Amino acid sequence: MSVAATSEQGADYFACFGIDRRYAIDRDALERRYLELSRDAHPDRVAGGTTREMRLAVERSSQINVAYRTLRDPVKRAEYLVKLGGIDLDRTGGDGGAPDPGQAFLIEMVELRESLEEASSAGQAALDRLRAAIESRSEDCLDAGIDAIEDDDIRGAAMHLVIHRYLQRFLDEVDAEAGLDD
Amino acid sequence: MSNTNATLHDTGALFQIAEPEERAPSKRRPGFGIGIDLGTTHSLVALAPEGSAPRVLADAQDRPLLPSVVAYTGEEPVVGADAVAQQEEHPQAVISSVKRFMGRGLADIDFTHPYTLDVDEGAGVIRIEVDSAGVKRRLSPVEVSAEILRVLRDRASAELGEEIDGVVITVPAYFDDAQRQATRDAGRIAGLNVYRLLAEPTAAALAYGLDRGGQGLFAVYDLGGGTFDISILRLRDGVFQVLATGGDSALGGDDFDRVIAAHLLDEAGITEPTLHQRDAARIAARTAKEALSAVSSTTVSIAACGIGGVELRRETLESLLDPLIQRTIRACRRTLRDAGFRARELDGVVLVGGSTRVPRVRALVEETFGRPPLTDIDPDKVVAYGAAIQADILSGSAREGVTLLDVVPLSLGLETMGGIVEKIIPRNATIPISARQVFTNYSEQQTAMQIHVVQGERELASDCRSLARFELKGIPRLPPSMARVEVTFQLDADALLTVTARELMTGTKQSVEVKPTYGLSEEEVDKLVMESYDFASEDYSARSLAEARVELGRVALAVRIALEEVGHLKDIVTAEERAAIEAALADGDAIMARKDADGDAITAARKALEKLSEPFARRRMERALLAGMEGRSLFDIESALAAEEAELDERRGGHSAEIIED
Fold this sequence. Notes:
The structure holds two protein chains of two kinds.
Chain A: E1 2-7, H1 13-16, H2 27-41, H3 51-72, H4 74-84, E2 88-92, E3 97-98, H5 103-122, H6 124-150, H7 154-178
Parallel strand pairs in A: 2-3
Chain B: E1 6-7, E2 16-17, E3 33-37, E4 42-47, E5 55-56, E6 66-67, E7 69-71, E8 78-79, H1 81-87, E9 94-96, E10 116-119, E11 126-132, E12 135-139, H2 141-160, E13 166-171, H3 177-189, E14 194-199, H4 200-207, E15 216-223, E16 228-236, E17 239-248, H5 253-267, H6 275-291, E18 297-302, E19 307-313, H7 314-339, E20 348-352, H8 359-369, H9 382-394, E21 403-405, E22 412-415, E23 421-425, E24 433-440, E25 449-455, E26 465-472, E27 484-491, E28 497-503, E29 509-510, E30 515-516, H10 522-532, H11 537-566, H12 575-593, H13 599-627, H14 634-649
Parallel strand pairs in B: 3-13, 13-14, 15-20, 17-21
Antiparallel strand pairs in B: 1-2, 3-4, 4-5, 4-6, 7-8, 7-9, 10-11, 11-12, 15-16, 16-17, 18-19, 22-23, 22-25, 24-27, 25-26, 26-30, 27-28, 28-29
Helix pairs in contact in B: 2-3, 4-9, 5-6, 5-7, 7-8, 11-12, 11-13, 12-13
């Protein structure tokens, strides 16, 4: 058995919330809309109803919750816009999958891992410095991805976001090394 | 395609209706909903009919708290104070703190208890072996809890003068799926319509009327007899949302008592206490603990241990309890961080549970959150009050209510290659929520897949709680990675899991028989429900007759739908077969029409129909599967998959017969 992909439920999340399909979002308005939709859709609203009514309410609420999780999170929202543009970062290879970050970048990651080992033996201050440097690069990457989305350059955005994912994973490793993941 | 509710299940089986049996919309009776706090040490029932203030119902002796203790010493189980009175004499037949066994496996029971435990072969549910008056019984924790619920149910219906309509039962927010399922099953066995399981902290927040303030951010610190919960809740725009929850489902006041008892025994030089001595020490420990909430020093005497007039000071008590209390404080910090807020942003802190009466607990909570906690509602009753308020709303009363959005306390994951967990729903995700996952085959020979669902935060499946295992069967023989099965994991508003699966190639909906690792099987719950009705034999046969009719009706309908769809295809059903099946259908109709038909005759008619239609059913299924493969190039298959996935992106409404015609 192998896990091929996670498919998410629901139509376009932006449509679900009745907002424009773009990165910039009014988070407060999004939350209010979420609460409003949740109030109407919650299964408690149909308590005592038929099994079917109950199931539909559960499905509808699930859809709203999944959509909100995606839209309120800056990274998930960016990745979702790229997915709507035809590139699914959760899939590997092929035309609609995550782009290959390129040989040069992968070599750089290998070098980064080596510097993590060095920093790890050099102590906490060295780890902190490494973390700060990668963190800032990761943020830049996300910003570049968002800019590309706003310029309608989905391929470019996908590449930035893939690299962003690699860097985030690397940061998790740094945290694990520093014992911060408790 | 037919627009009925029928759909095909896996290849081996006969036709089945996939849709769970439709429940007629029950006519709710506003004001007849009750709230039950099913606690580790004691339980309560409360009412708040039609918008009134909640009140806890007491027994005939005016005692509101029902000790969660069940004695199996006579013919009928005895619950409450009368059971407690028998505890010393029959430590193994009087069951207390059964909540700690709910939904657990043998390996989870790492605390001391006087019972003989056992599990059924090949199953995970614990059985407590009880020798009651010479008769050996093997009880599941669910049955024991159901006894407690029954007493509270009767107390409420006596008060209302009528049967109750439904119940909200509270559970620790930190309860996992197995523990919640066990609680729901206990409700069903007690003959209750369980509207909803409500997290205890959420119930407490409702009781405090925090929902009336319009908006705010609150922490609920709940330290009961056996469990600890911390929840961060936010109110905004009529929605009370749990942002994060944390805790320890095996830490509570009982542990306080044990630590104190161990200290007392240690001081008395007793290194290997008898069961009796340990119990006596624990009871004395509890009394001392309660006394020290009000005074700074008390004396302890335990005859059974030869302890007489030993002084116990509050400082000693606090140094004993501190490690346990600190565990709760660490959980508070973690949960605040999960919620994304700082302690000083809170608008209020609520204390729940009898153990929050310990002054040291209050002091440390105040220190952690930087504000004195709210304590004006009796911490023993506050959860039951909240449950009663929500039950009143769900019974259909006009009471003004807020929408309660809860979270799943622990991540849900799947075991993948190498025993690694792949998380599909993260902890603290707002429920209801669902996740879908597509599985592929690794060889053409593979026609089934094993799926193991676990709950927990650890990397390895063996370190998480096993929730359920099931097998996806009837996967079409296709080249590696071409067969694709989409599995949907749905958590409902009670955080209970259901699983459905669908083969994307043929659109065949799979029946997923989930075998809960630590839960009772559906059949066993049904059996216990039946037993609980105490049917006179006449009623019982009426019931089995009704069931036989439903079964025959179900099979006949499915066969008719299938005939209508593919009955004209001679390679699926020959003329002779068709004639025989139609004759069997007519027999079935005739027997259903007779008022005096007995259950055995109806069942015989159903079996005859099943036997006759079985080869036809199998061929129809095979054809459906072949339709997914034959005469298609790889490209066709790929684009069919893409189209399928696009279609799946729309939420599926009613379940039509899901066969793709080619």
